[in-house]
Amino acid sequence: MGIYQNLTKELSAHPGTTLVAVSKTKPVSEIEKLYDLGQRDFGENRVQELQEKQIALPSDIKWHLIGSLQKNKVKYIAPYVYLIHSCDNLELARQIHKEALKNKRTIPVLLQIRIAEEDSKQGYEFETLWSQLEKGELQSLSGLEIIGVMGMATFTDDKQQIRSEFAQLKSCFDQIKQTFFVSDLAFKEISMGMSGDYQLALEEGATMVRIGSLLFGSR
Ligand SMILES: *Cc1c(COP(=O)(O)O)cnc(C)c1O
Known about the structure:
By secondary structure, this protein is of the alpha/beta class. The chain is built from 9 helices and 8 strands. The site of pyridoxal-5'-phosphate has 14 residues, from strand 8 and helix 9.
């Protein structure tokens, strides 16, 4: 699979960047092919599909939950999930905290922030998130390890718009880091960029890119 090698080579120009291979809708056999090439970080957006694949595949895979997550489903993935990219409200954060404690672990999360114009895109409004952080409401959840932010750009051909949305997410990250996590080394991740826009995302400071169709073909 030349595409994978080319992509990992391209990413090696940005040290410390993690490639999350988004395997949603793709069969276990396709994941195994990338696994055999050395890929360990995989992303899924639906809990049930993640469950089925987690059982069927090697236990050293790092499973990322990248899609919107309902509170009542957190319990299914809490024992093993490597990183939840889509924490975008306080109720969900509290639920992740509770399930983490039950499993005697901490669960790493990213705070998903809405940067796209489209109302349909998930994520915290920055002001809402900021006010929760000011009150310490998220930091007090000991089951959570907040390690950064995530965002999705508007679905558009306008590269300038996408770039400016990624820059906006980077700026949100910087402000949150400086104000609330300044001495927290773990708070360092910016998850942004997909098949169509990952190069822009890397230029704007992404530390994690979530790439599906480029690796696995269209869905
Ligand atoms: C599907 C998905 C991706 C990957 O999209 P591609 O365009 O296939 O690379 C990335 N992030 C999220 C949240 C997704 O749902």
